[in-house]
Amino acid sequence: MLPIFVIIPLGGAFLIPILAKYRQGLAQLTANLCAGLLLFFSLCSISWLKTGIKIYYIGGWRPPFGICMVLDGLTVLMLLVVNLIGALALVYSIDYIKKYTSTYLYYTLFCLLLAGLNGIVISGDLFNLFVFLEITSIASYSLIAFGAEAEELEAAFKYLVLGSVADTLILLAIGMLLGSVSTLNMADISRSLSNSTSVNLIKYSTALFIIGFGLKTALVPLHAWLPDAHPAAPAPMSAMLSGVVIKIVGVYALVRVIFNIIGFNQLLSSVFIWLGIISMSVGVLLAIGQWDFKRLLAYHSISQIGYVVFAIGLGTPLGIAAGLFHLFNHSLFKSLLFLNSGAVEYSTGTRRLEKLGGLYQSMPVTSATSLVASFSIAGIPPFCGFWSKLMIIIAAFAANNIIGAVVCILVAMVTLASFLKVQKYAFMRKAEEAGSGIKEVPVFMKISMLCLALLCILIGLFFVPFVDTIIKPAAAVLLEGTNYAKSVLGV
Fold first, then answer.
1. What pLDDT, in 10s, does the model give residues 113-128?
2. Residue 282, Cα to own-chain centre: how many angstroms?
3. What is the Cα Rg of the chain in Å?
């Protein structure tokens, strides 16, 4: 069943332009049907894993001679992130995207984006991971520029230039490994590197991977493209960028390569920890002074990804589990916040916090769901963000990383202050000018926001079974390190 995660969205992207020639409504129906099927199969993959790791050999050729697709605990978690947020973003788009022209092109690009993201997650070799990464990147550039206004085009161009630099570095690293071990299968590379004497080459390719994927993740100081790209994109694409794209093309690809191919060590742990500490600190300090709603959220994406990288960099079972748990939680509450910002802009025509006010009366659903998301990202119990941040802080203290633990606590406090500002200026304070004609957004936009808010609450209340079922199997994949080769190749 693994190829279906790529076949369904690619088929949708092929059919949508054809069907749209007969009726425009068929484009959104096809895209949402594809996303619904992908979400269903992602949920099914949880049960598929109970009988062990699953491998699909394309054409029946076993690795290292053939291409394979792999389903393990980490794959299941990432498929869930991609297809859950993707499905809800497309539901939100039903009403939101009507203000644009050529909507069938939007749905075509969105399906290509889902195909690329799913392909990255299930790929068992570096070549196809890079191919799907390029599909994801091209779809992302196009969707950011979809409005064709000056702001969108500038942001997309900046993302394209820096993204191309990242792609070049990643491709160079892959080429160096290929020249050394003569294989592109991840498991076979891992097996070959365990016997390799090319220590300097391995270190150099590792550095290229960290810089390349760090650019994709927007870790400080490689974050220049993100504060422009996220605000410029349509709201559903902003939700995908922050909630999914930077996690899959950045965090997932980086940890898969470092942990399961090259091998995690103390030096890499220090690099991850300090990149995480710097990113979470710089991101939140840049965010608190922002008055553009979406730009404020963009800087908080940098900060929250810092939490994830820091926790995984600890290298302990609790740290890795906490980092992956926060990655999933961030996909929920940050996607919700970007959908909230899109709803505010949709109804009021502005993203400037100082021009807003009193929206809790005219937009009660947006206001309530924004409050849930704000409490979640700030780490207020019992919402989902509290438990993952608490786990990260405990893991830091357990690993004797006192500096990191204190920074996590201080950043959480500044994050709370930042979102109290959002709630005060956008929703709670009395509007200086009566907002005549402001009303709640259409029903499909409300459905997506309510679903994400409900998930933030439910994951917070039932985090123990969720961690046991989804997070621990994903963390186990990283903890087994280069034994990944044995799981895939059986040797």
1. 999 999 999 998 899 9
2. 20
3. 21
